[in-house]
Amino acid sequence: MHEDDLKNQLTIARNEINNLRQQVRNLQHVQRKDIETINRLLQDFRCEGCASNINAKGKDKPESLILQNDSNDINVNGREDVTNFKPIGIIRSAFPEKRAVPRQSSVGSRLRSLIQLNDGVFTNPEHSLEGLTDFSHMWLIYHFHRNNAHPKAKVAPPRLGGERIGVFSTRSPHRPCPIGLSLVEIEKIDGATISFFGTDMVDGTPVLDIKPYIPYYDAPALSVDPGRTSAMPNENSADFYDSRQEPDGEESDLELYGAAGYTASTIHADGLGIQPTPSAPPLPSAVRVPNWVVAGHRLTVCFNEHAEAQLLELQVHKQCIVDILEADPRSVYLRTKYGSQIFTFQLSEVTVTCKFDDKAGTVTVVQVRRNENIQVAALEAEPRNS
């Protein structure tokens, strides 16, 4: 028995050593990312005098987004196929880095963000927002300015577990033209600043356009005849939905029902997803999505005593962290390469450290600490009143 006990202890020790090695590798990856962030902050740093000069020059020459065809195609006018867009504003969000940014706006529905319009587009930018308060939701079209990777024809959405599919059948941010689309809920408008809920953008994202959400035009109509789809607005689509398809092609269940013109009385929301009531009919033939999109999986989020105490001390809203983690913000690479390992991300002025357990389908928050060394220009992760 004594010999068997020693063997068991050695086996446990070996497993712990292997786990520690994997955690060290994961922390090395995090360290490299932190170093890149620090280098980028140092490169972008300007003293107050330099920043004022740059801003003054920026008013004369607004920064533009250039979308260019990499091929040598020439258009009918004999010019190269290039399109210039000047951002109309910038988004200030609670995410200074891409890490852990929600893949859909409904995941960040409790996170408030701001849009600050540029005064270089209109003389009085606040005039362009008159009438927008009559709408509850709006579409945001913006530039994925932090995606520098070369776009590929096929990408690997997280829900496919590494399997690749055509980029245009997904909502992946890695696209030939890096344009993002989010459906968000308007909170209030103050001058040339819009406050909204539904954050799935990194801080500093350039905004290209704003459009009001109109369900009569934006939601597909129900089928009225076999084999045909009504071209008239669906009168049952009276409700507004603040969810959208995830960037990696993962539409939320709420949008699937909302796009079909279902009212709130036909769906029931709980912590695990959206379940149809017994009286709800099946999805209409006018709306069709692949099975891998509909299939959903939520992780169970736990907090240890230390993290719970830090939440109270720092006055961080717990549900904001839960919303982010239960949707598993890790990329396919991190999930398959490192598995159940330590994961950290920044949320406004705090850094959250957690540990995933893929076998149990849980994630435990072990630490929530204030960012002392790096100051970020982000908003408080404040929950909505509802």
UniProtKB/TrEMBL annotation:
Protein name in the entry: TsaA-like domain-containing protein
UniProt-listed Pfam families: TrmO_N
Gene it is expressed from: Dvir\GJ17719
Alphabetical list of InterPro entries matching this protein: TrmO-like_N (IPR023370), YaeB-like (IPR040372), YaeB-like_sf (IPR036413), YaeB_N_sf (IPR036414)
Keyword Cell cycle included in the entry's annotation: no
Coiled-coil region(s): 3-30
Protein species of origin: Drosophila virilis (Fruit fly)
Residue ranges, annotated region (Disordered): 228-249
UniProt family annotation: Belongs to the tRNA methyltransferase O family.
Source domain of life: Eukaryota
This protein's record includes keyword Iron-sulfur: no
Alphabetic keyword roster: Coiled coil, S-adenosyl-L-methionine
SUPFAM superfamilies membership: YaeB-like (SSF118196)
Residue span(s) of domain TsaA-like: 85-222
